[in-house]
Structure prediction request, 498 residues.
Amino acid sequence: MTSDATPVEPLSRMRVVLVRTSHPGNIGAAARAMWTMGLDDLVLVAPHRFPDPDASARATGAAHLLLRARVVSALDDALAGCAWTIGASARPREFAGRVLDVRDAAREAMKRSSTGTIAWVFGTEMSGLSNEELARCACVATIPGNPRYASLNLAAAVQVAAYELRMAAGERDVWSAPRFTPATHDAIEGLHAHAARTLAALHFLDPARPRRLMPRLRRLFARAGLEQEEVNILRGILARIDDVLRRTR
Amino acid sequence: MTSDATPVEPLSRMRVVLVRTSHPGNIGAAARAMWTMGLDDLVLVAPHRFPDPDASARATGAAHLLLRARVVSALDDALAGCAWTIGASARPREFAGRVLDVRDAAREAMKRSSTGTIAWVFGTEMSGLSNEELARCACVATIPGNPRYASLNLAAAVQVAAYELRMAAGERDVWSAPRFTPATHDAIEGLHAHAARTLAALHFLDPARPRRLMPRLRRLFARAGLEQEEVNILRGILARIDDVLRRTR
Prediction:
């Protein structure tokens, strides 16, 4: 959960490596996906076209990642110095090592990030990583998906991995609804008593045969957890009904 | 992890609703994101351009979702009959109801899917859902992200939500079916419309200066999670008030 003490620093140890990407638009979209989760270390291995206006257009607010991106010619250059390397693959290939789902891989990556940079490697749009490339990774991470169609868009796969990293970092920031003052027990009892009187005057409730009406209303409002201002609103409505009923007498 | 034992049936109860999408390419990319996770119920509310070659191009292997997609003109049409509705929002709005992160929202959605269709609602690329649209949702789901740049691409947001749904489907939490029938979206909207009319007739609500009354009532009942029988009771009370008011005229 959210706190200022949550360490975001491990996210800065996460590197995304895109290998032989065909479409520069996907590079830009991947950069955007990274930055929405607080990642900013992007390395491109032999991209077909880069820099490119399509990359910049799809990056939107993450254009600075493209400016900083390092372009190298071989995967080993991108992985040099890394403490742990993870190859993304939709399905197990000829890979004899550890295969994790992306959630477990993200958790392990966060733990290992104290030891240095962690590289997440993504292959081409059409065929992913080759067996030789996967063999250079310490483990494989898969994104669980539809067995009939597991082909995530490249940037979408980066988005899921970056999201899992942020979740693993403990950065589950959720803005919370403004706090309101809960109604006291006696305020709630006063509401129920008022409602019973007004519903009886409306001939909606027969005090001689109340059936399950008031218990149902109690149950509904108990589930909601009434706030003081809501009690005031509901009592205001009841008072208006009382006024109208007085005039009809 | 994917396996044939994964219960995918609840995933067929998940509907993705895209509201006023500007770029047809994003509709196609969202369809692909859905299908990679096994979701296939797509509803488009007033898309700017659809069908469109850009949508088909980005859908790749999920083109059949576009062919099946329902196009409607109003959000309520997309949500009619749904058992639970979730609005996706990146940042705090004037929404005082429940806010969940997307992981918790997916878990709850899977549990509630036994009661009917669950709608996940996504707004426009530029500004997301309006306050009015969010108010029609039972809760808000946020994707935790970089506080400095939380603007996920629309299809990327759909990908994360669909991924979390698939992960939640595999968790197979033990849970018991609710003993009561949840009110559908249209039943709840019918209640709010009726309440607004009756409160105006009572001169409790001034339609020209509604202030915060109806949003407060919406919030209260969204928190409670109304059941069908409760809607019937509340509408019965409103109808009795209507009778009394008619007699005073």
